Amino acid sequence: MRQPVLATPEQISALVRAVDPRWRVVRTWPLAGAVAAQVSGIEVEEPGGRLRQLVLHQYGAANLRSDPLAARTEYRLLELLSARGLPVPRPWLADETGALGPGPCLLQDFIDGARVDDPPDVADYTGQLAATLAAVHDAGIARADVPFLPDVRTDVPRRLERPPPARDPFPGVSAVRAALAASWPPPPVNQPVVLHGDYWPGNVLWRAGRLAGVIDWEDAAFGDPLADLAISRLEIGWAHGAAVMETLTSQYLTLRPGLDVSTMPMWDLHAALRASTFDISTWGLPAPRLAAARGAFAEFAASALGQLTPAEASP
Questions:
Q1: What is the dihedral of CA 137, 139, 143, 144, to 10 degrees?
Q2: DSSP type of residue 258
Q3: DSSP helix/strand/coil, 27
């Protein structure tokens, strides 16, 4: 995916001054991890000499196709979430016109933390992931507060309109697509909530063994909380295996005991459909891990398909 043009020092200075004319840019540096966006770290000096670190997120073409107002959308959502004390970056400025920079962008606080892929205590790790996801879903943000977020149920029809990948790196994708085409959407059995839309370890930052922040909200939506849980289940299963995936699931459901999980298989299939578009051949994995990822996907999809009711499974 083609990334947007990196903002120049002059453009970054203009963005910073638009927040506070007294702030002075000290340094900037690229931040890794974004696939279709440009992300930069910025250190500014405030009056009195205090240093503050910010992040500039420049949206790529894929985000802007889904939401031409992506900068404003993420700004408004982060405002709501941060006001409720959730561990998200505080937004400072959304420039959706490109008037100050080379294109739509969001200026937000930098969260001091790092991604963790190999936690020393896996149960504590998944417990914190589950607790933070539950806190987001329990934040009390109503549909009227976020009319700008898409309904998560529209994601499957949009994905099914596209032809399946020319190369099928994941076994079972055809069966996943057929089941979703036959039975989507699932009935609305849970109170809809704000969804992160991409809640996986790559979007979670840690500091000193504690979850420090949840970043990258550009895929946020509104709908059944099981949609977020399913994405997390698949991602954790990929990284740590099926047993750890079930531990995460149990920890989350313990915190939200009133949820109806009868539609979990359909949301798992939604997560599988979404993941089927990932080109894992570009991830740089050694052949054994690549094979393991395909096998884990097949197991996840087969488990979801096997749990469908006869009515859901029938074309």
A1: -170
A2: T
A3: strand
For the chain, the domains span: 9-109, 122-313
Token pair 């200075």: residue: 13
Please give the C-alpha separations between residue 93 and each of 20, 105, 124, 196, in angstroms, as whole numbers.
10, 8, 35, 20
Tell me yes or no: is domain 122-313 CATH 3.90.1200.10.
yes
Quick one: which of 65, 222, 90, 71 has its CA closest to 146? 222
Cβ neighbours, 10 Å, residue 188: 12
Q: How far apart are CA 121 and CA 105, in angstroms?
A: 37
**Whose CA is closest to 201, among 129, 283, 112?**
129
Q: Write out pLDDT tens, residues 303-312.
A: 999 998 766 6
pTM of the model: 0.93
| Cα–Cα dist 293/170, whole Å | 8
**CA 215 and chain centroid, separation:** 8
Q: Which residue has the tokens 């990948």?
A: 165
What is the structure's pLDDT at 136?
98
Does 232 or 311 have the greater pLDDT score?
232
DSSP string, 181-248: HHHPSPP--S--EEE-S--SGGGEEEETTEEEEE---TT-EEE-THHHHHHHHHHHHHHH-HHHHHHH
CATH number of the 9-109 domain? 3.30.200.20
Q: What is the pLDDT of residues 143-171, one digit of tens each?
A: 999 999 999 999 999 999 988 777 667 88
Q: Residue 139's closest CA among 201, 79, 199, 69? A: 79
